Amino acid sequence: MAIEYKKSLAVFSDFVGVEEAENLLEWLLKNPKGKINLAECGHIHAANLQVLMAVKPQIVAGSKDENLQLWLGML
Amino acid sequence: MNSLLEQFLSEARDFLQSISEKLMQLESNPNSVPLMTELFRFVHTLKGNSGLFDFPEMTRVLHASEDLMDAVRNGRVNYSNTLADQLLEAMDFVGMMMDEIQVEGKIIKNYSATAAEVAKSLRGLLDSADAVNVPVAIEIYTEEGLAAKAISWAELPELNLPESIAMALYRCVMDGDTVFWLQYTPEPECFFKGEDPFFLARQVPDTLWRNVISTNDASSLAEMDVYRSQLIFQFLTTAPTEELDDLFRYVPDQIHRIKIPALAFVKPNGSVNNQTVDDEFISSALVLLEENNLAGLTRTLLTMLELSAPDLWSSSVLRWVLQCIEVEPDNERMQYALLNALRTQITPDWSSMTPTIKPHEVAIEPVAVRSVITPTIPVISSGLPDELLQIFHTVVNTQREILSLPGKWSAGRLQSVAATLLGCYRTINHVYEIETEAALQLALTEKSPLPLLALLEAALLDVAVVNTPESEIIESLGGRENANRGSEDVVSVGRRSEDAAGASQSKTLKVDQEKIDRLMNLIGEMVVAKNALPYLANRAETVFGVRELAREIKSQYAVINRVAEEMQDTIMQVRMMPMSFIFQRFPRMVRDISRKLGKEVELVLEGENTEADKNIVEALSDPLIHIVRNSLDHGLELQDVRVAAGKNAVGKLIIRATQESDRVLIEIIDDGNGIDPTVIKNKAYEKGLIDEATLERISDQDAVNLVFAAGFSTASVVSDLSGRGVGMDVVRSAVERVNGTVGIESIAGKGTRIYLSLPLSMAVTNVMIIQSNEQIFGVPMDLVVETVRVPRSQVRMIKRKQTTVLRGRIVPLLSLNDLLANDVAQLPNEDDEFATLIVRIHGEHVGILVDNFRETVDIILKPMTGILGGLPGYSGAALLGDGSVLMVLNPRELI
Q1: At what angle do helices B56-73 and B33-50 cross, to 10 degrees?
Q2: Which residues lie closer than 8 Å to B381 by C-beta, 6 or more apart?
């Protein structure tokens, strides 16, 4: 799993594909205070990106991938 | 190359062929809806297939073609020759790319520019047609309009950059870099195409600033459709255009690119408060600037900067001035404007410094624009769209307000109002020209706006009245549109189900030719193996003395023989191809050549379904092209010449294929100027091809046949002789290679008929086995006229050559042993008669002396390969039933 859902934290790792988007949105809707950890994430599919943009969850750790962080830093 | 690609290529070629065929047919029948629909389907399928592979250029061109065909199909664009030309050209381009893929496995050259050009010219047709049909819509939306219009300052994207980045960008532009503002709007359905726009966005090189916007319009998060892209990516990049083009080559229409001028970045930001920089400082700074004391100015500014809080708007301005002094010390206007801004607290209006910016290179979202136009078309053509009416009302109301204004009315003012109103009325197709003109005159004389106002009110009422039913029309149109859309859906669904049905019912199999060839070889071996059985039966009887067994073997042989022959027949059938395979390219070729030559030619193809072996059909293609080209170029005359000669103005070229027993006859008949035998005779004599005696007695027919003589097709002859005979010897040798013959008949001034006769199949050859010098050889039966036994006493020597008289004709006799360079005399039989094989070579009878005749057999002739392949005297070898090899002679070459 590219996203590991913990109690109130979703840990993204490696490449998060398009198929994760729906689950992610569901999880975020169920856990309105859910936080995101992107540290080990290399890329997220645009579908996930727009979920994050729409829900605007708190991001507790930015990605170690500099280029990705440049983009996600704005969230 | 993977098998999918191979299949795509082979199918795509068929499609291209069908497309050009359909285009040809449309040319003669431009209004045929079924043809158009079919054509659209071909292009549509081809486009879809090409999308499976990484050939964006190909897909783009096909996409444009598809759009165009769709427009034609729906009657939005009329079919025209220009359109056909464009489409054909596009298909040629696609074909060219396919050739490259075939050879290299991928597209190597960079065709993106060409592809864009081709696609653009196709779309150009679409747009020009749109312009004709919907003039109103086009005024508002044209793609060209946007492309051609210079981007004004106001149209630049709003840039809210952090100061440091803005300054870096400003410096980049000043250093000569080109900074593009790039907006990438992925289409909503892109996720379903396997695209990841974010990934693509991350690939943009040299990005100095990036942003992503969500256009999420769902009212609640739960309603959000995560699989519809709602993102817009924005960049500022210094990457070269080509790199960007390459990166976004799949989605060029989703990119909006604008070149940003340096000044656009100069935008101070920060908090504005009342505490402005005092006027005294500004004045002193301006004085320093006027004195061009930049060092002093810098010092003053730095001091001021130290005194004020860094996050103030004014501090930002100060930093910008410093930056400007550093980068552009000569740009006093800019420095002045910035300093002045300290006073006004408004960012300087840079547009006055750079009036316009050059048009950007990529038009804004043509696709989106078109989707706006399309649904409005039917509405515009019969009624008025709501938006337009709204605009109309706004404009008219404004004019009414203007007219109601009190005050003195000058003539110019009245005229301008009248002109505006007239324009409005024209837009909505209400012509009030006369009335407006009259009202204007009245208003001018009265110097009062009242007549115009009255007219305006009346007209407005009129429009409203007319428009009430029209709004209904619009509604009903909308309804019908929906209905149409519904039926379209039905159609497309129907089509899909048709496709599916077609696929399941399709009885056609595409098989690699190699497999068929292998099958062919196997059946050949089978025939050989089968032929061994009679030998076995023979041996059983003679050697082992078991007659019973011999008989059983023979009866079994009969069964195997029957099955094997049927099998052989069937495999032959598989290899058979209809002549249409080569005929189908002629319409296009004839069209192109005749256009180039300015001749009008009607091409008649007959017997396209005549079948022949694949090898034969393929071998025919080059000679046929040659002949047809000759006929067009030199045979058929120009229109006025034809009319002067009392012929139909349109030349006629018939290509006909017919089957005659086991041969295919192909005729190419034109009603052109024919071949003048006298000219040919003289030319041949000049060339030394015939001697004087021949010149005197040669018949006209023989003279015409001289065009086949090798060496007749030299350049000078071509030009002098109107070219008939160009490479005709090449044609003949090509046809003869597949055991065919070629002939020509021509009547000067009336036309020419060239006919090719070819065997249906070259797989099985009927040969006669002959014996000479204790060896056996095969001679193809189609050359053999007869076999005779010539008594030694009948052989006469003429000029040291053996001849005999046969049925009143002198027949030269050649000994096979001599021909094969065996120094042995031919053996006569007991009655001292020579076994003589009379063969026909180039219409002449020649006797070949052999030792003895044997039976005739059907063999599978295998051409010789390797070193033996260079032996011209043999046409090949075959295996006999007893396992021995039979060499088959080629008497044409031998003699």
Answers
A1: 160
A2: B133, B134
In this complex, which of B199, B202, B216 lies closest to A54 when CB atoms are compared? B216
How close, in Å, is residue A35 to chain B by CA atoms? 17
Q: Give yes or no for a contact between B825 and B870, defined as CB atoms under 8 angstroms apart.
A: no
Residue whose token pair is 């009336």: B750
Residue B540 near residue B553, CB atoms below 8 Å: yes
Are B746 and B680 in contact by the 8 Å Cβ rule? The answer is no
Residue B146: both structure tokens together: 């946007």
**Sign of the alpha-carbon torsion through B16, B17, B20, B25:** negative
CA-atom Rg of chain A in angstroms? 11
Could you give the C-alpha distances from B541 to B553, B554, B761, in angstroms and in order?
10, 11, 37
- What residue in A sits closest to B218 (Cα-Cα)? A54
For residue B714, the model assigns a pLDDT of 42
How far A73 CA lies from chain B's nearest CA (Å)? 10
Least confident piece of the model among B60-69, B517-526, B698-707, B756-765:
B756-765
pLDDT of residue B432: 62
Q: Do A74 and B212 touch (CB under 8 A)?
A: yes
Q: Token digits for B169?
A: 């960008």
Q: Give residue B368's pLDDT band: very low, low, confident or very high (50, 70, 90).
A: very low
CA distance B893 to B790: 24
Interchain contact, B222 vs A47, CB within 8 Å:
no
Q: Do B227 and A43 touch (CB under 8 A)?
A: no
Select the residue of B202, B222, B229 nearest A29 (Cβ to Cβ).
B222
Distance, CA of B689 to CA of B675 (rounded, Å): 18
The owner of tokens 């109690």 is: A7
Q: What is the DSSP letter of B603?
A: E
pLDDT tens profile B201-215: 888 888 888 888 888
| Interface membership of B211 toward A (CB under 8 Å) | yes
Write b or e for each residue in B584-595: b if 16 or more Cβ atoms lie within 10 A of its Cβ, otherwise e.
bbbbbebbebbe
Nearest C-alpha neighbor of B763 from the set B845, B696, B862, B697 = B862
Q: What are the angstrom distances between the C-alpha of B787 and each of B47, B242, B805, B834, B840?
A: 62, 76, 14, 10, 12
Interface test with A, best of B193, B209, B226 (most A CBs within 10 A): B226
Q: pLDDT grade, residue B777 (50/70/90)?
A: very high
Q: Are B100 and B340 in contact (CB under 8 A)?
A: no
Taking alpha carbons only, the member of B155, B61, B175, B139 closest to residue B107 is B61
**B468 Cβ contact list (under 8 Å, min separation 6):** none
Question: What CATH fold (topology level) applies to the domain A3-72?
Answer: Transcription Regulator spoIIAA (3.30.750)
pLDDT at B104 over 70: yes
**Does residue B608 contact residue B580 with C-beta atoms inside 8 Å?**
yes
| CB proximity B208 to A under 8 Å | no
Query: Which two structure tokens, joined as six digits, stand for B363?
Result: 């038009």
Compute the distance between CA of residue B478 and CA of residue B428 in angstroms, rounded to an integer.
Answer: 19
pLDDT given at position B730: 78
Structure tokens at B340: 């002045």
Lowest-pLDDT range, B447-456, B617-626, B785-794?
B447-456
Chain A positions touching B229 (Cβ under 8 A) are 46-47, 50
Q: Do B229 and A47 touch (CB under 8 A)?
A: yes
State the Cα–Cα distance between residues B421 and B392, nearest whole angstrom: 10
Give the amino acid at B127. Answer: D
Domain positions in chain A are 3-72
Is B224 close to A49, i.e. CB distance below 8 A? no
SS3 of chain A: helix, strand, coil, percent, to 5: 35, 35, 30
Residues in chain B: 895
State chain B's maximal CA–CA distance in angstroms. Answer: 141
For residue B143, what pLDDT is reported?
34
From B348's Cα to the closest Cα of chain A, the distance in A is 29
